[in-house]
Structures are given as C-alpha cells and as structure tokens.
Specification:
The protein has about 450 residues and is of the alpha+beta class. It folds into three domains: about 170 residues, Triger factor/SurA peptide-binding fold (Orthogonal Bundle), CATH 1.10.4030.10; about 100 residues, Chitinase A, domain 3 (Roll); about 110 residues, Chitinase A, domain 3. The protein has 15 helices and eleven strands. The protein has a four-stranded antiparallel β-sheet with strand order 4-3-6-5.
Length: about 450
C-alpha cells in the first residue's frame, strides 16, 4: 500500500497541512517544542500499544478539561512509524510519550485559536486537500481512496488539515507579524554567506520534472513500459532536447503546462528524494529516472543559489491579482463565486483582467490593474505562491483562498534574472526572518503549553 507522503511546503506545506496529520519522528523533535510535564505534573503514563485487536479507548490526558484519548495517540504513533520505519528503533513507550506531548501542545494552541476567533471554512480545507493531492501527484479522488485504505476517515483527515491551517493562522497572528530583522543583521548574514561561514543555511533550488505516473498496485508487467518511457525521456533530455517541451508532452504532473517547473525555494522545502537526486549534478543537469510512490521522475536542476549571494540568479514571475478580502458581509463562498465569474468573463473576452482589478480588488495593487511586478521566490504567502508556481504565463488560476481573503491570479511572464543588491538583501532578510519565526514560535508554544492545565490519566486497570 502506498502511503501518503507528508505535505512539504512550497512555503505552503507546513503552512497548509500535513498529508495525514502525522509528522515524522524527526519532525516531532524539531517541528514543535519538545515539551515535558512541569515540575508538579506526574510522569505521563505511556499510551498502550496497538495490538491485533483495537486498543481500548480511554483518556490519557486532559488539556484545560479537553480530553486526549489513547486512540489519538496510537493513531499518530502508527502513522509516524509508517512514514519513518527508523522510528521503530525507539521504544514504543518513549515514542508514545513524545506523541502525547505533541498532541497536548497542539490542543492547547487550538484552544487559543478558538478563543481568538480563528475559523477555517470548508473552502480553505478543500484547497489544502488539493495541495496534498498535487504534492503526491494524484487526484483528490485518489487521495481520498488512499486515505480510506489506510484506515483514516475522511472526517478525521479533513479535521487534521483544518487544525494545521488553524495553527498556521494562529502562528501568523501571534508570532510572524511581530518578528523584525534589522539592517545590521542582514549585513552580517550576507558577510557570513560570502565568507562561507553560513554553510548550514540550505541553498535555494529550482527543479523541473517529468513524472511518468505508475498506478497504485501496478504489476511488474505494467511498470516495465512506464519505466522505459521515463528512461527515454531522460535520454532525450540529456541529449539536449527542450525539457519544458518534454514535460508538456510526457509528464503526468499538474505543472506540466508550466514546463514541469516546481518553483524556486529553499532545499529543505523540496522532497528529500529530489534534493538527494540533484545534489551532485550541475545546474541544467538531468537526474533520474528516480522512483517514488507516484511513479518515475526525471529531474532537471534549473538553479541553485545561496540566499543573499551576489551572483544569485533566480526565476522571477510577473503576476497580477484581484483580491476580495474577508468581509462579514460576504462569505468566502460568495467571494469565490464572484472571482470565478470574473475568470469566465476574462476568458470569454468580455472583460479585461486589469480593469476588473482596478474596479474590484481590495488591495493596494488595484490602481495598477492588480500588477504586483516581478516577484522572487518566497515573496508571497505560501497559499498564493503555490498557485503561482502552477500557472504558465497567460494562465489564470481558479480562486485561491489565503489568510488575506480570496485571490484571482494571473501569471504574466517569467524570466531568469540576477538579483539586484536590494533583492539580495530582501532574500537574506527572508531567510533570517524565517529562522527567527521558528525560534519565536517555539518559545510562544512553550508559553501556551505552560499556561495550560494538563492532567495526566493512568490507563484503566484490567
């Protein structure tokens, strides 16, 4: 059974959801604070392992009177082990305790989100579900089938996604808007980058792919011709054929119309499989075919630069949009419907995108017909950037829900360009700010956890 890969942000991925709500064992160690009970709290009783029969249901902890159950812990433990077989080397009781602490921290954060009025509507969850499907190179229908096959109900899966989006919105409200990076810090970061003393900062990479999809459960006889097709694509790419045209002709991935380009972003936001495959090849080199759950991938490394480097060349995108902000008088569904109508009118030729933006967009770019100029990777919020990366020049997106409202997006052009000095500084500032946000969020989450009343429960006696 092919399991669902965790969603990786396009700067989206952590921000939107995790594929199954599960996180890898390494993610449990780093994605959130490793929290232990306070000095007066009793040692958490390890949740009982799942055996051949369904484990007994009981409460293992109360977080401000809200229960965390044994089943919740065991489902998360099982997902972690499935995603990360090496986690089996950790004693089950220790892993269960880590998972329980992670669930307690999440529950406390979700309670804060509820108190501050953060609500995630179904359309935002639908969009995030689509992102998960695209990251796994499958349709939403196929995603739901796989989730069901893994014993996860659709309701539980969507609740997991909703919770992750909620925490991301809470993080934005409580932490991101308050983090600032000074010019002095940017200067020092750039000096460190150029002297080579900042090697721990991952490079920004841009990869294009041709995916030859392999159906789930395919036999060896079915796989063989698909592998041969991927090998032929790789041969032609190495012989110098236009990779974008090969992607448009052969790829089964959703970004095929964009020449297979996945978009420039930090290497730690790409699948590890892709990073490993392209690590030792030069820019414009070809890797693969490599095999994943989705099929065979042929990869081209389009660019690789260090943030803030003076010679950094990146893919820039000229984009414009129409934004309808969150408004008590207009639901998200109504905003989506209005922007879908705008898209249809533009495509029919009965309206002009720039004119609609000037008349309707609730963004400062409205006076410029929605034009946001030439953007660099990482400049937009994850939801927006994920949609931009999927569009070919001239294409218009379906309505995109973000933390700011609902957008209609059109990509006007793309180019490879060397960053100006000001853009280099902004790229460096973004890297520093992201690091500072991680640190600030960890501290904030620990404070939320410390304020929560947590009561640990012993398992029932047989």
């Amino acid at each position: 059974m092919n399991h669902i890969r965790p969603i990786l942000t396009l700067a989206c991925l952590a921000a939107l959801a995790t594929a199954s709500g599960a996180q890898g064992i390494t993610d449990i160690m780093r994605a959130g604070p490793r929290l232990a009970p306070g000095p007066s709290a009793p040692r958490a009783a390890p949740a009982q392992p799942v055996t051949g029969q369904r484990s007994a249901e009981y409460i293992v902890a109360l977080v401000n009177s809200e229960p965390v159950t044994n089943t919740e812990v065991q489902v998360r433990v099982a997902r972690i082990i499935k995603e990360n077989p090496e986690a089996e080397r950790m004693p089950r009781a220790d892993l269960a305790r880590l998972v329980l602490e992670r669930l307690i921290s999440e529950r406390a954060q979700l309670q804060v989100a509820k108190e501050t009025g953060i609500k995630i509507d179904d359309l935002a969850v639908d969009q995030a579900e689509g992102v998960v499907a695209r990251q796994n190179q499958i349709t939403v229908t196929e995603l739901r089938a796989r989730v069901a096959a893994e014993g996860i109900t659709q309701e539980s899966f969507r609740n997991d996604i909703r919770n992750q989006i909620t925490i991301a919105r809470l993080r934005d409200r409580e932490v991101e808007s308050k983090v600032k990076v000074s010019d002095v810090e940017v200067d020092q970061f750039i000096r460190d980058q150029r002297s080579g003393s900042n090697a721990a900062v991952p490079p920004n990479i841009n990869i294009a792919q041709v995916l030859i999809a392999v159906p789930e459960g395919a036999s060896d006889a079915q796989v063989a011709p698909l592998q041969q097709r991927a090998q032929e694509v790789a041969r032609r790419a190495r012989a110098g054929e236009d990779f974008a045209k090969l992607a448009q002709e052969f790829s089964d991935a959703p970004e095929r119309a964009n020449g297979g380009v996945l978009g420039a972003r930090s290497a730690d936001r790409y699948p590890g499989l892709f990073v490993d495959a392209t690590q030792s090849i030069p820019v414009n080199g070809i890797a693969g075919p490599i095999r994943s759950d989705a099929g065979f991938h042929v990869l081209k490394l389009l660019s690789k630069t260090q943030p803030g480097a003076s010679d950094a060349i990146v893919t820039q995108t000229q984009v414009r949009h129409i934004l309808l902000r969150n408004d008590p008088k207009r639901t998200t569904a109504q905003a989506v419907a209005q922007l879908a109508e705008f898209k249809e009118r533009v495509q029919r030729g009965t309206a002009d995108f720039a004119g609609l933006a000037r008349d309707n967009s609730q963004d400062g770019s409205a006076k410029d017909g929605g034009d946001l100029g030439w953007s660099r990777p990482g400049q937009f919020v994850p939801e927006f950037e994920e949609a931009v990366n999927r569009l070919a020049p001239g294409e218009i997106s379906d309505p995109v829900v973000s933390r700011f409202g609902v957008h209609l997006i059109q990509v006007m052009g793309r180019r490879e360009a060397k960053l100006t000095q000001a853009e280099q500084r902004e790229a460096a500032r973004t890297v520093l700010r992201d690091k500072r946000i991680e640190e600030a969020f960890s501290t904030w989450a620990q404070e939320v956890r410390a304020r929560a009343y947590v009561e640990y429960r012993e398992p029932p006696r047989s």
